[in-house]
Amino acid sequence: MFHSDRGKEFDNQLIDEILEAFGITRSLSQAGCPYDNAVAESTYRAFKIEFVYQETFQSLEELALKTKDYVHWW
């Protein structure tokens, strides 16, 4: 599941094709309803504060492993 607001960077044909290629379902917030995306925004904020800003990664593999560990913990 990929949930986002209706910003043009997320609501476009290229993103549609990528999500379809990986079998990922799209979910867009309702138009004119900023609170519809509040949970996603809050989750992303916590992820950045608790994880991204606290870590240094030496490789993409390390990033992937630490991200997986964080998500499993959370």
Automatic annotation (TrEMBL):
Domain Integrase catalytic: start-end pairs: 1-74
InterPro entries: Integrase_cat-core, RNaseH-like_sf, RNaseH_sf, Transposase_IS3/IS150/IS904
One protein family per Pfam: rve_2
One example of a Gene Ontology biological process annotation: DNA integration
GO MF term set: nucleic acid binding
Domain of life: Bacteria
Protein name: ISSdy1, transposase OrfB
